[in-house]
Amino acid sequence: MAGVYAVGAIDWDRRLFDELIPLPDGTTYNAYLIKGSTKTALIDTVDPTKENELIENLKSLDRGHLDYVILNHGEQDHSGTLPKILELYPNAQAVTNPKCKQILMDLLLIPEEKFIEVNDNETVSLGDKTLEFIIAPWVHWPETMLTYVREDKLLFPCDLFGSHLATSDLYAEDEEKVYGCAKRYYAEIMMPFRTSIKKHMEKLKSYEMKMIAPSHGPIYKRPEFILNAYKGWISDHVENEVIIPYVSMHGSVEKMVAHFVDSLMKRDITVRPFNLTKTDIGELAMAIVDAATIVIASPTVLVGPHPAVVYATYLTNRLRPKTRFASIIGSYGWGGKMVDAITGMLGNLKVELIPPVIAKGYPREQDFRALEKLADEILAKHKGINIIT
Ligand code: FEO
Fold first, then answer.
1. Contact 270, 356 (CB under 8 A)
2. Domain 239-384 belongs to what architecture?
3. Does 77 contact ligand 1 (Cβ within 6 A)?
């Protein structure tokens, strides 16, 4: 697009984000320079680890001039190079909404006089290009906003619609690959904010879009590709699927999970077990984006669930998937409160709890029959919400 330049950086080696989220495909920190007929603006900056790349990219394009730095989001992977940019371009001003301004003053100690505040639907003119700011809180911080170039019909949504994918493709050419990375990104970062995203996507319907340029992953030349993917993920529709995060210490839970998986398959229910001692937690997050049911399986350790199960349950609860049903299977040796502990950690989920199946020691015949009954109940629940044809 004329006058718009990608000036961000590719992080091929990054494997963990926020010291939490696995990044098997690396990521990018996208920043964009927009040259209008009278003014020049930089949309977002990059992670401080990639500061030099942004500065070199800018030097090759801007001949030492920058009027505005637009900050769509305060998180440091997009804002962290702002202090350096403002030092290199002392006449440039940081443009953002009041909430983001406060966050940037707190996180990066930027002086207040460096800012121009903008509010919803306000604009900044670059001459022949008009930047419109769309306040879109909670995707995924409270201060997030989107920037729209009216003349080019180009949207810069920062994190929203992004994907953690290091690639030399500037555009989303391999849509199958990008779909998987964008879904992982949605699951790990955006899913708790499904309701906010629904509202923002309604608002975005009034904006014609030729291109969407997020701040992670490739640019969408076909905006409908990512918009349609999001429509599915944020919808209330769930799939005929059961997700089973589990841990087994001495084989009892493993035996129960194996029998349960087999029972679900016999009932034509898609099932995905995740051994939590081996799984990439991001894979689990992706799986719960659209599954109708989650069944958590744990042995009893120190009177409670296995710590790996506690972590997966905590994360699932914080990610707030649209899962409709939940249950628990597991075993114990001499007592404990494993079921109560897991149930107590699911408060954020709007799920109907199906009675658990707990074996004393190694599972016996009655435990296998109980697992089959649980599979029958799940089948009936899935039929009840019309996801089995
Ligand atoms: Fe890509 Fe919320 O930072």
1. no
2. 3-Layer(aba) Sandwich (3.40)
3. yes
- Name the fold adopted by 4-234: Metallo-beta-lactamase; Chain A (3.60.15)
Q: Is the CB of 164 under 6 A from ligand 1?
A: no
Ligand 1 atom 3: the closest Cα is on which residue?
A: 75
Per-domain residue ranges of the chain: 4-234, 239-384
Instruction: Indicate whether 63 pLDDT > 70.
Output: no
> CB neighbours of 264 closer than 8 A, spacing ≥ 6?
242, 271, 375, 378
Q: Are 96 and 145 in contact (CB under 8 A)?
A: yes
Interval 223-265: pLDDT, tens: 999 999 999 999 999 999 999 999 999 999 999 999 999 999 9
d(CA 382, CA 111): 56
Q: State pLDDT tens for residues 178-219.
A: 999 999 999 999 999 999 999 999 999 999 999 999 999 999
Predicted TM-score (pTM) of the model is 0.95
- For the CA of 216, the nearest atom of ligand 1: 1
Q: Atom 1 in ligand 1: which residue has the minimum CA distance? A: 159
Check for a shared fold between 4-234 and 239-384.
no
Query: In ligand 1, which atom is closest to the CA atom of 76?
Result: 3
Answer yes or no: is the C-beta of 75 below 6 A from any ligand 1 atom.
Answer: yes
pLDDT of residue 389: 74
Range scoring the smallest mean pLDDT among 58-67, 144-153, 376-385: 58-67
